[in-house]
Amino acid sequence: MLRYCLIPAVVFAIALESQPAHACRVPAQLKFFDINHADVVVIGRISNYRIIRPSQLRKFFEDVDRHLSDYARFDVEVEELLVGKSSGILSVIWDNSNFVKPEAMASGPFLIALSDPNSSMPPFRGSSAVISPRQGPSLLTVLQAPCSSAFIFESTSDKARAALRALGAQPK
Q: Which of 18, 79, 156, 171 makes an SS bond possible with 161, Cβ 3.0 to 4.6 Å?
């Protein structure tokens, strides 16, 4: 009996796995106030950026370029700490699967908002999307609401200035 109950769950998991990473049908508007959900906000430079493709099912779906399980991992050399506690170099995960992540990233500097994996707060606006288990359970994760843009902005951009205003900081 248990075996028959598990079959639909396995089929559903395989179907999800085979979908490309841009799973949102309608993108959600970026809300700069969401930066207040961040545990750490820094201005820093990105290095060692890479896409991780951990899927054991990849061999079954070779014709699909991206999978929901793909994520980016990179280091951030902190130049300025705006929120939270951090210094030096941070190892970071960008695991939101709703958008195709770039194969490469410029070094920056970027304003980057991050969430702590040990935070007790559930994913904000999470009821509208699939929330996958964290890929790096001990690493900070780029803040991104489901189906919205990530909080990674060139540090001198209008978006970075808007995020700073939402934090109550004065843009430079």
A: 171
pLDDT confidence tier of residue 59, bands split at 50, 70 and 90: low
Scan for tokens 């700069």, then name that residue: 32
Is the Cβ–Cβ distance between 36 and 113 less than 8 Å? no
Whether the CB-CB separation of 101 and 51 falls below 8 Å is answered with yes
Both tokens assigned to 36: 């207040």
Token pair, residue 29, equals: 């508007």
**Token output for 136:** 């790096």
Please tell me the pTM assigned to this model.
Answer: 0.73
Residue 163, number of CB atoms within 10 A of its CB:
27
Q: Are 155 and 42 in contact (CB under 8 A)?
A: no
Higher pLDDT among residues 155 and 55, named by residue: 155
Domains observed in the chain: 2-167 (2.40.50.120)
